Amino acid sequence: MNEATSTPLQFDRVVSRSAAPGQDAAATCKACGTAINTEYYQINGHVACASCRVRALNSAKTPGGITPLLVASLFGLGAGIVGAAIYYAVIALANLEIGIVAILIGYMVGYAVRRGAGGRGGRRFQTLAVALTYLSIALAYAPVAVQAAGGGDLMRALSVSVQLIAVLPIIVVFTAFPSGLISAAIIFFGMSQAWRVTATPRVDIQGPYRVGAMPEPQPV
């Protein structure tokens, strides 16, 4: 029986032990170290007990309901604000627009969203992380837009910036064309990073197998 799912459990090697004379062979679960005397499973080719299989299946499920999404949003928004501050500091202090910072923002936001989701992922959290990453990059350009649109009227500048915040990265890319294409690519990589970090990793669960019996080779 083959099952494909995802789990934060880590299986990087198999640990087994020999049986004492007169006893059946035994294996050891890589995840929890439990001795297995009857049936075992394989997760990514490594030995796992039935309890860890259940844990793997449960941890693979994308959290439902509004609460995990709200918590993940708060975590991601906090990381996004910090990332925007870092990005703007690079622009203001170094007078440079280093798009590579967008990749850092993508990782920060993605990691924060995943933490807020209880270490899990899924499409809804991937979409959230990408949106927050883009918003964070837009926030980094907001002070620049305020200065450019100010003309001595701070309230007007703030109003214009708020209205245009969703398209600020696009404006920056096109006003710096063709060199802005590089920034556009790096911004895309930043959002891709957020998407990857919040993805649900796929693992292969096979079994059950009897201890002492060799698993059947899987077709390539």
What labels would you give this structure?
alpha+beta; four-stranded antiparallel sheet; three-stranded antiparallel sheet; disordered N terminus
| Rg measurement, Å | 24 Å
Order of helices and strands: EEEEEEHHHHHHHE
> Which strand order do you get reading across the main beta sheet?
1-7-5-6
Overall 3D form: elongated
Structural class: alpha+beta
The low-confidence parts are 1-8, 10-24
Fraction of residues in H or I helices = 55-70%
Characterize the biggest β-sheet: 4 strands, antiparallel
Task: Quote the average pLDDT.
Answer: 77
Strand content: 5-15%
Quote the distance from N terminus to C terminus. 16 Å
**From the structure provided, what is the oligomeric state, counting identical versus distinct chains?**
single chain
Q: If helices are DSSP runs of H or I spanning 4 or more residues, what is the number of helices?
A: 7
Total number of strands:
7
> How many structural units, i.e. domains?
2
